[in-house]
Amino acid sequence: MNTPALLKAQSLVNAGDIVGAESALANLAETEGDHALVEALDHFPAKDLLAIIREYDCSKESLVNLLVTPEQFAQAVVLEKRYADLSHEQLRGMINSVIFRDDADPAEFLYAISEVDGGYDALADYLSERTQRIEYFYRYATFDLFEYGDDAKTQAIDDDLLNLTRESESQSSPLDMTNAEDHDWMEVTCILRYQHPDIFREVLLKLRARLKKELAQQEAFMESIDELPEGVLDNDKPMPTQDRPDFTGLEEESAL
């Protein structure tokens, strides 16, 4: 399907005019209906769709963000890693803006992402800054680090993550979801645990592996510092005589 609107949008993306590309797709919806845009996005390159979605501006409405399907979005979102954004801020903003739109089912979008090659890594990237909080939530069913909540539900559990399934995991209560409705990482974590526990399991395993690797790298770095020759890191080490500035005569001149 190579409609003029699609070809124009692709050309504008390649030229770096993301706003113009989104406008071309929006015009398609305005002239032929929303269904035409949804159908067109099935034939729109995922990398170009990603370029448009990641430029989301919360100050204005985006028809692409409002109409993109879970499957179309999943194909695009797994390509975010190509941008090498170590903070993953763009990824989080992009996911939040789409899966929490008014008519969307976040669980459906999260499932679609998990079904695409690289989807688990994308979800782990989304949650990467919250590993310890998510681990705590897994054990105590609360994000509050200072209180356990209902004793019957939040007792510390043995690490049985590999056996976490929809059959073994209890469903969340309305109160659980209400307390975590931030349209952000906490709500995503709750949805994954209680509606897609198998996905939650795989994502948490990835987060654990990443944290373990980071700690090992930090430990290796500290060990390398300890092995440096004595005095290398000593800022108080006397400056070699030849490198010292010459203040000869300075006292005599200031006295005058």
* Topology, number of strands: 0
Gyration radius, to the nearest Å? 26 Å
- Judged by helices, strands and strand pairing, the structural class is mainly alpha
Mean pLDDT across every amino acid position? 82
Summary?
The protein is mainly α. Helices cover 59% and strands 0% of the residues.
Write up what this structure looks like:
- The protein is mainly alpha-helical and 256 residues long.
- 59% of the residues lie in helices and 0% in strands.
- It has 15 helices and no strands.
- It has helices at residues 4-14, 18-32, 34-41, 46-53, 63-67, 70-77, 89-99, 106-115, 119-126, 131-140, 151-154, 174-179, 185-195, 197-226, 250-255.
- The termini are far apart.
Layout: helices, strands, pairs:
Blueprint: H1 4-14, H2 18-32, H3 34-41, H4 46-53, H5 63-67, H6 70-77, H7 89-99, H8 106-115, H9 119-126, H10 131-140, H11 151-154, H12 174-179, H13 185-195, H14 197-226, H15 250-255
